[in-house]
Specification:
With 119 residues, the chain is mostly beta strands. 0% of the residues lie in helices and 59% in strands. It has no helices and eleven strands. The strands form two sheets. Strands 2, 4, 5, 6, 9, 10 and 11 form a seven-stranded mixed β-sheet that branches. A four-stranded antiparallel β-sheet has the order 1-3-8-7, with no helix packed on it. β7 and β8 form a beta hairpin. The protein is globular and about 45 Å long. 31% of the residues are buried.
Length: 119
């Protein structure tokens, strides 16, 4: 199993920047990829950005050019740098990973961190 703990959310004004962090513990050697999802009130949880063990990245259209996903394997940490934040970025942001390298098809989630962008 993998445990994830996010941090770095907050209340900011439009145009500001934030850096989210996620630290993984447990069976981190089983993770094949990590990602950031977000969920706004009344909406589905959507993938924002992801990064594989080969450092291949993927971004949602809404994140391209403004968000950067990165990881530090030595710290089992995942980051999301967000610039030029917009009110529509307001959501709870969740860190996600899997255990597929060990045959574990489970999805693991952090507790979420709230990002609120005021206009």
């Amino acid at each position: 199993q993998v445990q994830l703990v996010e941090s770095g959310g907050g209340l900011v004004q439009a145009g500001a920047s934030l850096r989210l962090s996620c630290v993984a513990s447990g069976d981190t050697n089983c993770m094949s990829a990590m990602g950031w999802y977000r969920q706004a009130p009344g909406a589905e949880r959507d993938l924002v950005a992801a990064i594989t063990n080969f450092d291949t990245t993927w971004y949602a259209d809404s994140a391209k050019g403004r968000f950067t996903i990165s990881k530090d394997n030595s710290k089992s940490a995942l980051y999301l740098e967000m610039i030029s934040l917009k009110p529509e970025d307001t959501a709870v942001y969740y860190c996600n990973t899997d255990g597929r390298l060990c045959g574990d098809e489970s999805d693991y989630w952090g507790q979420g961190t709230q990002v609120t962008v005021s206009s």
